[in-house]
Amino acid sequence: MTLMDTKQTWTKQYINGEWIEGSGEKTMENINPYTGEVIATWRSSNKEDIDRAYEAAEKGSVEWSQTLPSQKEEILRKVSMLMVERKDEIIQLLITESGSTRIKAEAEFAAAKRIVDESASFPYRMKGEILPSNTAGKENRVVREPKGVIGVIGPWNFPLHLCLRSVAPAIALGNGVVIKPASDTPITAGWLIADLFNQAGLPKGVLHVVAGSGSEIGDHFVAHPIPKVISFTGSTEVGQGIGKLAGEHLKETALELGGNNAMVVLEDADIERASEAAVFGKFLHQGQICMALNRIIIHTDIYDSFVDAFVAKVKQIQAGDPADSNTLVGPLIREKEVERLLELVKNAEKAGARLLLGGSSKGSVLQPTVLADVKPEQEIVQQELFGPVAVLMRAKDEAEAVRLANDTPYGLSGSVFTTNLERGYQVAKRIESGMVHVNDQSVNDEAHVMFGGEKSSGIGRFGGDWAIEKFTRTRWISLQHQYRTYPGVSDVD
């Protein structure tokens, strides 16, 4: 699909199997973050569009929930097949719309396809139970069912993968779904997904996409009485607002939020391997990943050697055009993010950090930047960076390294490097994070393994059996095979 084709095609809402013009008054722009070119414009959804989408999803989910497992599986298998057939198109859309480098786009495509493939097995994994009873003649059945309608609010950084992470399992398990994609990436976080499922033969009414500004329609999307679960991936600040609003309406959430992830490099680590992993975990997709490394905490005995190895590797990184297959660092999603990060770097230098590399930009591309000797109290350490700025910190021993890693309100992912794997495991257990990887960097995601954070990094788990638990409910239905007698009520011979 060419850029012109995109302008003509994916600018409408997808409601009840039809591509329709949004009903909102606001016209929105989809902008290429690298070139600044307007990819397309579209008319925003409004509250009435959301009402129509949710009502259609509620109706469509009833019949879909009764569909045979083999039919649900077939739809997911077709989506996976179509993704392979349309891979070049999908990769180009990720590059154009979200500023993904080709390296990152390939990784995102693979992860998204694995989610779909894993989800195809879910219709056969909805297990119930039969439990004993202390009441004579009673049979206790615990049945597992789809929850009904799931509202998915998608992010812009991994738009295809992180939306499909909720959409594919929810549909495979018999739910209806309404997506509100990020305004920066409405195609890859919404319309493309609808197009794939539509092409795969998903019955109309099961999946819908409404695209508009979160400030205008976000609250209505969350508070609407129809969806049973709101799945959101994004910032902690926005996630807290969604959680509060959902709680007021007794609505369940799945929240995957921000991270301030740390790699701990112990004194016995392989410096070359650790520095190589750190470069990838920091700079993939310009650091615009919730799991990306923010802080690299190095034991003092190997600090200088690690810094030298790390800087040498960062100097080899190519930054610039995301379409170039050799580029690792492409554009940030908006130029104001460059300004924000450069201000943080400037303030860190004033506070005593050493700028070893970078600190400059061209347009929306911030050159890979390395700060050494950063202190725990500095502003740049206390927040999620979401950009290509590496923060190197010194720890006097293992205990201090763990303390520094935990010195954050976040707890999404983490990393430990050591040549002693059992020691690494014990250190990982002391790091307050939903995920920790020994002798690997922090950016890991496997479709069949749980994914989720602790503290301010979110609520709930995605992936495999955890996704099944999130998007289904259990109910107790008992069968009284012989009538009971009730004390004080029933006649007794």
Give an overview of the whole structure:
The longest helix is centred in the N-terminal third of the chain and has 19 residues, at 47-65. The N and C termini lie far apart (81 Å). The protein has 493 residues and is of the alpha/beta class. The chain contains 15 helices and 26 strands. It has a 7-stranded mixed β-sheet, sandwiched between helices. Helix content is 39%, strand content 23%. It has 2 domains: 3-257 and 457-477, Aldehyde Dehydrogenase, Chain A, domain 1; 261-438, Aldehyde Dehydrogenase, Chain A, domain 2, CATH 3.40.309. Its EC number is 1.2.1.65. Keywords: Aromatic hydrocarbons catabolism, NAD, Oxidoreductase. GO terms for molecular function: salicylaldehyde dehydrogenase (NAD+) activity.
- The value of Rg in angstroms is 24 Å
Distance between the termini: 81 Å
Instruction: Supply the CATH class of the largest domain.
Output: Alpha Beta
Strand order of the largest sheet: 16-19-20-13-12-22-23
User: In percent, how helical is the residue content?
Assistant: 25-40%
**What is the number of helical segments per DSSP (H or I, 4+ residues)?**
15
Quote the CATH topology of the largest domain: Aldehyde Dehydrogenase, Chain A, domain 1
Key features of this structure:
493 residues, alpha/beta, Aldehyde Dehydrogenase, Chain A, domain 1, Aldehyde Dehydrogenase, Chain A, domain 2, 7-stranded mixed sheet, 6-stranded mixed sheet, 15 helices, 39% helix, 23% strand, globular
